[in-house]
Amino acid sequence: MSVATTVDYARIERLASLIREAESVVALTGAGISVPSGIPDFRSPGSGLWENVNPMEVAHIDAWRADPERFWHFYGNRFQTLEDKEPNGAHHALVELERRGKLDAVITQNIDRLHRRAGSQELIEVHGSIDTSSCLTCGRRYPIGEVRARLEASPISVPDCDCGQPLKPDVVLFGEWLPEGALERAYALAAGADVLLCIGSSLEVHPIAQLPGVTRQTGGAVAVITQGPTPWDARAAVKLDGDVVAELQALVAAL
Ligand code: ZN
Question: b/e string for 170-187 if b means 16 or more Cβ within 10 A?
């Protein structure tokens, strides 16, 4: 079966014409864009990272504070599964759109740093990223390679800061606030967008779920490029429901 059969070219063309007329296009991405890279979407039943574990228990800021060893036992595995993954054609298609001046920024919920590694320049990681971990006591920050080395060297598998305190990955854990600067930028971009491309996101996790509404209120159009239903499907100017890589590559080709 050819991948091309999954692409709805009439809808791709409608989206391409919206983008041609737009002064500002912004992408909002979620877990679905990383699925073709082999990173499971934990919200999909049966493929879940969280299936055998209660995320509120292990990926909560209180769990990190109370029991860093247990926290890092879970998170160390997660680092390992994310670290060797590569960006896919959908990440690269967004880089190409930005390079051509057709895309102003990518706002992502993903912590896998695949947009960064693909080469996206204007990138807002609203849930942080595994790229670095920090010491909440002295503020020192370490790159992922160093964190992995400290994790492996530690007899209890907890990476420590030079000051002796356990490190925390620079991702937003349950129970933590989203970084304010990143959120403000995301809202401003959504408000200024003529087209908001919502890619691989169920658009259900707040406050990101509010961004399509911000775009619509300021007169912009919302396009949903996500498998499965989202609360925005009926109000979207275009809904694409197929293979995200094939669809974004077709979009690049159509522009
Ligand atoms: Zn420290």
Answer: bbbbeeeebbeebbebbe
pLDDT at position 54: 67
CA-nearest of 157, 127, 151 to 30 is: 127
pTM of the model: 0.90
Which residues form the domain of 147? 42-84+133-171
Give the active site residues: 127
Cα(178) to ligand 1 centroid in Å equals 22
pLDDT in tens, 154-172: 999 999 999 999 999 999 9
> Do 149 and 199 lie in a common domain?
no
What residues are neighbours of ligand 1 (ion), with CB under 5 Å? 135, 137-138, 140, 161, 163, 165
Q: How far is the CA of 160 from the centre of ligand 1 (A)?
A: 8
Domain check: are 74 and 147 in the same one? yes
Same-domain check for residues 213 and 144: no
- The CATH number for 154's domain is 3.30.1600.10
